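User: I'm curious whether this sequence folds into something compact or stays loose and floppy. Could you predict its structure so I can see for myself?
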Amino acid sequence: MQLAQKLGIATASNIMVFASILASSVTSVSAFTITTGGTSVPGAGQISSVPNTKTINFDNGIAPTTGYAQYSASIGTPAIVQGTFSDYARPSGDQTKYLTIAPVGANVPGSNSPITIALAKAANYFGLYWGSVDAFNTVGFYKGQALLASFTGRDVPSTTASGDQSSPEDNVYVNFFAGQGEEFDKIILGSSQVAFESDNHAFQEVPEPLTIGGSLLALGFGLWMKLQPLRGIQNSKFKIKKI
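Assistant: Here's the prediction. I'll summarize afterward.
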């Protein structure tokens, strides 16, 4: 309930979803809240349980460079791979393609850390299926050029951050919720060692105030219009005919 209040959740269905997420441990750093827990999908690992999100699953083998979330690398293009190799491992239970990140010069796929995700509109939520969580993996949130908050694998609740490739503790869906005024429009993923593996990135766009206000105005105007005929009928009952 505390998390639901922080996020300003307005519907009962959303409250139920976030209540289920709260069953896992919660960590708060700065104005961000971190939880673990997603929805398991056979063959695809886990996806976000948060409603109304935009998801990037990399199944087409490409990190998008257009659309809502635009990915870029410090060198070349982000590396989308599949399977497990000596230098990196798929997130547990994920048979699909995923993003791998390694430091420049590591001479493995994904040796182009950091990866920048530029958002077309500000978001207040980011989630990812984080495989073999490591302490040297980092996630940074920005508004323009200003860093709002930065986290490592150690900040993920209930994980060992030891890079275990099969442990449920270190292969988890991680949810980052921004506090009020901490909405972000850029995410930077980095890794100082081999490697940072993730899939099923999810984003929740911040609703535009004008959209909400416009909807309320339209609703009020519609209600006013419906009442006008009724008022006309009521007034007609009280008209006095002059002789």
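Summary: Residues 1-24, 232-243 have pLDDT under 50 and may be disordered. Residues 76 and 112 are 7 Å apart (CA to CA).
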